Each structure stands twice: as C-alpha cells, then as structure tokens.
Description:
Helices cover 30% and strands 28% of the residues. It is an alpha/beta fold.
Amino acid sequence: MTVGHKPSVAVEFVDIVKAFGPVQVLHGVSFALEPGRVYGLLGENGAGKSTMMKILAGYEQPTAGSVRINGVAQQFASSRDAEAHGIVLIHQEFNLAEDLTVAQNIFLGHEKKKGWLLDDSTMEREAAAALAQVGLQVDPRTKVRRLIVAEKQLVEIAKAIARHARLLIMDEPTATLTPGETERLFKLIAQLRADGVTIVYISHKLDEVERVTDEVIVMRDGRFVARSPTADVTRHQ
C-alpha cells in the first residue's frame, strides 16, 4: 500500500484544557501517541474523546495547553492545517457534498490540475485506487447522493487514504457497515499500521477494540484516567 511521502506522526498532548463558554470539557489532559500503532480511545459519552480528536484534527483549538507533533508545538487553525501534517479525522457524521461525484469529494479542496484545468482523469484514476483499497466497488464518477449510508462511510475512509494520512482518526467507523465491510476495514487498518500509519479508533464496540488495537486510552469526565496494552485490559476494567 502506498501512503505517500509524509513522515510518520508522533503526537503529545500537554495539559490540554478546553472550555465552551463557562463549561469546561477538558481538564489538563496529557498523553502521547507513538507512530505506527492503533489506539483505542475509550470513554462514555461526554468523556471528551471527540473534543480531543477535533483539537488534534484542527476542528477545535485548545483553550490552554499544547499539541506537539514530532516534538514541535502546533496549533492548527483548520482541518486543512492538520491535513498538511498528515492528520485526518474520518467523521461519524459524513462530510460529503451530495451533488458532487465520489472522485470530486475525495479530492475536494485538493484538486489536481493540468495547467488551469482540472485533471479529472487523474483524480478519477486515483479515486478508483483508493476505493479499491477500502473494498468499495462504485464508479468514481457516481454522484454521492446515489450511495447508501455504508458506501458513504467507505468514501470518507477512501478520502483519507487518498490524502496520504499518516495519523487517521476513526470515530465509530463500523456503525453503518455490514459484517463483510467491517472485515475489510479491519484488514485495511492492519495494512495501514504496517505502513507506519498511526490510528486512533473510537468505538463503543469492545470486541472491535480488542481485535484491532494495540493499546487503549481511557478518558472520563474530560480527564485522562488510564492507558494499557489492549491484551492486558479486561471488560470489567
């Protein structure tokens, strides 16, 4: 699998605080992510998991604290800034333009050009390759509005692959997938991991977390509370 030429991404969260008005949702959270590992990020709704990952992916900015990428403090102003560092969040809520084609969605904001013109043939060819990697057999010229929900989820994953993500955040990625599609996703995660891609896997399905992750990180009430190799974690814990 080819994941581009971006370097591996090591992340360190240092005393991250986040408040929305008077409500503080993150309370000095610190932990690190090493390259080429799959992390399960666990916690009940409201634990702060999604907010932490939105900060990492440039959708939110911390109120205090810092995010270090390969040892250098960064504050991403947008998701595009994060993508430039190889960090991509696959949304649980689809972030697709319904009236554009699959290929146009995959390259939206990153269009390939020949001179002043869009290079549709190259985008369609590269989109087809990314779709094949996630096991989605649709024509890249298909309008997204014609796809079913599970197919849209796979397009989101293909979009991240086409953008050569080196740190991929998956938020409940199997929620809409069939068992067969889920198996294909797990194989893809293993391939990405072997290529040195870091993956943060957010899921309430503990059997999936046990199967695909190397380590779990637990948050509660906006705080980091524990981390452990997945093999050492019991469901009771």
